[in-house]
Amino acid sequence: MNMSRYNARVTEPKWQAEWEKGAVFNAQVDHNREKYYVLEMFPYPSGRIHMGHVRNYTMGDVVARYKSAVGFNVLHPMGWDAFGMPAENAAMEKKVHPGDWTYQNIADMRAQLKPMGLSIDWSRELATCDPEYYGQQQAMFIDMLDKGLVYRKNAVVNWDPVDMTVLANEQVEAGRGWRSGALVERKELTQWFFKISDYSEELLGAIDNLKDWPEKVRLMQKNWIGKSTGMQFRFKTTGAPAGFEELDVYTTRPDTLFGASFAAISADHPLAKALEADYENIAAFNAECRQMDTTEEALETAEKKGYDTGITVTHPFNPSWELPVYIANFILMGYGTGAIFGCPAHDQRDLDFARKYDLVVTPVVCPDDQDPDTFTIGADAYLGTGKLINSRFLDGLTIEEGKTEVINRITVAGMGEATTQYRLRDWGVSRQRYWGCPIPVVHCEKCGVVPEKKENLPIELPKDVTFEKPGNPLDRHDAWRNCECPSCGGAALRETDTMDTFVDSSWYYARFTAPRADTPTVAEDAAYWMNVDQYIGGIEHAILHLLYSRFFARAMNITGHLPDNAVEPFNALFTQGMVCHETYKDVDGKWLNPDEIKPVDDGYVDGAGRPVTVGPSIKMSKSKKNVVDPEDIIDQYGADTARWFVMSDSPPERDVEWTASGAEAAWKHLQRVWRLTDEITQMDDTAGSADEALALQKATHRAIDDVTNGVEGFAFNKSVAALYQFTNAMAKSKADKVTKTASMLTMAQLMQPMTPHLAEEIWATLGGAGLVAQASWPAVDPDMLVDDTVTMPIQINGKRRAEIVVSATASKEEIEKLALASDAVVKALDGATPKKMIVVPGRIINVVI
RNA sequence: GCGGGCGUGGCGGAAUGGUAGACGCUGCAGACUUAAAAUCUGUUUCUCGUAAGGGAGUGGGGGUUCGAGUCCCCCCGCCCGCACCA
Fold it and tell me: CA A134 → CA A364, A518, A519, distances in Å?
């Protein structure tokens, strides 16, 4: 027989050209069809795609192709998150303009992505560094300014005095700038902020409606917003400097007020700062607190430390009760009022602190199963429920009743009130950098801070900049900075801050609905395409990107750029796992790339034949060298193999381990499917039997059902398993040519979302009409899923002992009779009658003896 | 410390409370071949047994149930996130 071999290198580009020729994936508004918007988090154009991209985009592609096949009008776009620091770093290191570097990277990555055969509407491609894109972002900034969603205030930044630049937290290493090594200073700058905190309650409440988001992400967002309800009240102080006659504290446990034994303030509290001037020891202690490493590990081991200021405060319900005021290292200025009262019995940190400084520990909540007269606190604070004790007028109340009572009395006395706190703070968007979207405002001596006129947008970044000198090139570009005041026409200066790149990614999903429009969005397109029906990306964006996007969609609604129903832009979210690989080290402990090693009998050796140590499988990363380049895999096996592999085995939300043998197996499988197709074309028309035909048809419908369920349930690994099973059935089948051809055409349809090129080739070879990419999804015939007979296991006392074959339509009684007559049951019963019989038709028979 | 998740063969992983280990990898045996590769067939949880067949088994311990990987309680281990958040 003349066997043709499937050559992905030839076939894949052929079908990609066909799709492009037919503009198969270009999306157009069609009000007669229901839309479906699939979006994967767009990539940063680093210049190389990696396996994580392959997995992410293949998942999105499977969904897009499947939804299209079942009749939706699908939008599946791609773009580039193209602003950001790496381009400036490259500019400094390689003397290349950030724009040139970025656009070259985009070209390189697009060239690597296209061979994957993704069903992307490339006509909608955008990059956030295109003036066409960021100009619209500037227009929205101006609209947001107009609606009071943007404001300026002073904020502290990490300042590198050598590089003359602001550093992100991750660029500060052990208190020094990562590039210059200079000691980082805390510097106050006037910066731009979005009023996201006004939406704390709204963003929190709406999380409950995000039913198709992972529970984990919803929880992380809730915690980030960090709502707490409590009470804020004022202590009267004794011995404090002028201006500090009162101390404002916040508590979530007003009920424990009678268990208070001290008050504590943050080292950054104004009172602590005021004391610094007069007391050297306090200045030293505060300095120590501020230096404290805030990493988790350090905090865990950090000892609770305090400094007794000598100041006291008066208990609000007992004028003769004085509490000492400490400066404590575990109080943060950024939350609440930066001051607390400590109730050691019911807060672990306060307890640790009290034990260290020998402060009173009075329990005020007694668990219901304990005697109030003997209940004491040992090493652990009591955080549970119970009745209040040792609390005068609160005694006997529950915690909730106590809170209400204390808040009432404090409020009546005019000492404080119930308050709600959120952890979420306003979003600072100013960046003192070049490669970002310029903030479109002008500073005029006469008019102040004035928004640029919209007709002057986009405010483009000047091209002629250098990075040889430290600092922001925009600051020293006089020709760009000097401008006309949009208000009075006089001489003015441009704002040189650019926007945080999270702003760029907070609305690109909306821009994709009308990427070339000369307004940020177009009402008709946004109304039709929004929301994103399925968003797919990494868990690392669980908080910031998704929260900012949710806020921005609301801001766009307020400024008229998105309809009311698009304030929650992502209907469903899926967070995929990472691609991992084993790690390898040579005898010197140097990391080795997988292609630098070769297998031997008991492990691997390196190029010089020296043994290689195999380490655990962890996320592919350049630093560990455990990377497999998608381009190499596509060159060697083709895109379908890479796509098939990343969809197989592991559930999408979990990490997948890339193995050479797994990739090889994926390739072999696709070759096998092709071989089976080829065999069908060469079959004799008269071969095969009717029985075999029916069995294959049943296997086909079983496969349709299983693959569909897998894709619908985001369990692509199960779809892959079902296709393996179907292939095995196909290989073994002795059905006639017509039946086999029909089944193989169905196979092509079912494989199409995952291996689109091979699917097209099979489809074309066997005479399918048009492109399989445009064929509708095969319908399952429920009758074909039912067998005439069914094998049922028989359990005796819950242990499987035998099985019988019964008619699928047999009644409970009939099955029971057959079971009782079976050898195993007769033998086990030995003439006795069973105590109980459980018969679940089609499932199980359990005989209890 | 707090919060979340996970624990099933040599490995990745399947399993509406109903035959644990689908499917894939690996290993082993065989067919084809002068040989190899490729392909095909069989086999592969452990254990006792020549076999027929039996026993054990889803991190550990208890419980609910006719029946538990799945539900409940306690414990152990691993992974992820975080903000000592009052």
Answer: 58, 11, 11
